[in-house]
Specification:
Layout: H1 2-11, H2 16-23, H3 27-31, H4 39-51, H5 57-66, H6 73-82, E1 111-120, E2 126-134, E3 140-146, H7 151-165, E4 170-173, H8 177-180, H9 182-191, E5 194-197, H10 207-221, H11 229-245, H12 257-270
Parallel strand pairs: 1-4, 4-5
Antiparallel strand pairs: 1-2, 2-3
Helix pairs in contact: 1-2, 5-6
Length: 283
């Protein structure tokens, strides 16, 4: 509207008051000049964006509130956009296909999802990262980095988790050789864990861990340079702690996975259920 008033003033020799009268625009509103100061907020947002370059304005708003800032999310969005901090999104081809809706997890340890991500060390050697995710709490239970993974290496990663939090009801994974070997199949039978293999070429049947791998690649693998395997393990372990304990998760109402798991445990305790029923073995 201010642009229209300026147009009348410049092209039709209208006075400011006359132009506002013609457009029924209050003169006081036209003359108003903002006195807001966003310099401190802009500096803080830029600082947070440098620490977390793949966080959008909503997650940055959560971090600001954690620091005691009482600020409206719309103001954060305005300053975030003016500062040019918007995260570029990759365009994806989407195929519309009717499918069966998977059963939703209702408790911790009901289902664990396994998958591998890969990267390259500075030496040129291939790096593989095994991720284990609880599909209900979204916790990353393990994030193991190595140059190769045999099936026995996979079970050595899973056994400490089982000792700490109990057996899952099922494990969902793809059809890689490490996860279809006789050793891994026999181990699942011995542990009384239901093994669910997704269909070949259908990675989104294991969508929770695929989404997790996207965050891992976007926020850790793509922004880190690994000198060697030990450096990679240190940085990936630090990102796992950040993911579980600091990073707000949009699916969990912007709680962290650790906060959500603790809240779920309290609910089970209040209901007199103790630990999750899915920690018990099959049979």
């Amino acid at each position: 509207m201010k642009a229209a008033v300026e147009h009348l003033k410049q092209n039709f020799a209208f006075s400011e008051r006359r132009a506002c009268q013609v457009l029924r625009f209050p003169v006081s509103t036209f003359r108003y000049r903002s006195v807001r100061r966003d310099d401190e907020l802009r500096e803080r947002l830029v600082e947070l964006a440098r620490e977390k370059p793949r966080f959008g304005y909503r997650r940055l708003h959560v971090l600001l509130r954690r620091d005691g800032e009482q600020i409206n999310h719309k103001r954060v969005w305005r300053v975030y956009r003016e500062a040019g901090l918007c995260v570029k999104r990759r365009k994806r081809k989407r195929l519309v296909r009717a499918g069966v809706k998977p059963a939703l997890a209702v408790a911790a340890n009901q289902e664990w999802a396994l998958d591998f991500a890969s990267d390259v060390l500075a030496t040129g050697r291939t790096l593989r990262v095994l991720g284990v995710v609880d599909t209900f709490t979204r916790e990353c239970l393990a994030l193991e980095a190595d140059t190769s993974f045999a099936s026995r290496r996979v079970t050595r990663v899973l056994e400490p988790i089982i000792r700490e939090r109990g057996r899952p009801y099922s494990i969902r994974c793809d059809n890689g050789p490490e996860l279809t070997s006789r050793h891994f199949l026999a181990w699942c039978i011995e542990q009384r864990i239901l093994l669910v293999h997704i269909q070949p070429g259908r990675p989104m049947q294991n969508g929770h861990v695929e989404s997790f791998n996207g965050k891992l690649r976007d926020e850790c693998l793509n922004v880190s340079w690994f000198r060697n395997l030990f450096d990679a393990r240190r940085k990936i372990a630090a990102w796992r702690r950040d993911y579980n304990q600091i990073r707000p998760h949009s699916t969990l109402a912007y709680r962290t996975p650790s906060e959500f798991a603790a809240l779920n445990n309290r609910r089970w305790a209040d209901a007199g259920q103790g630990t999750s029923i899915w920690s018990e073995p099959l049979g």
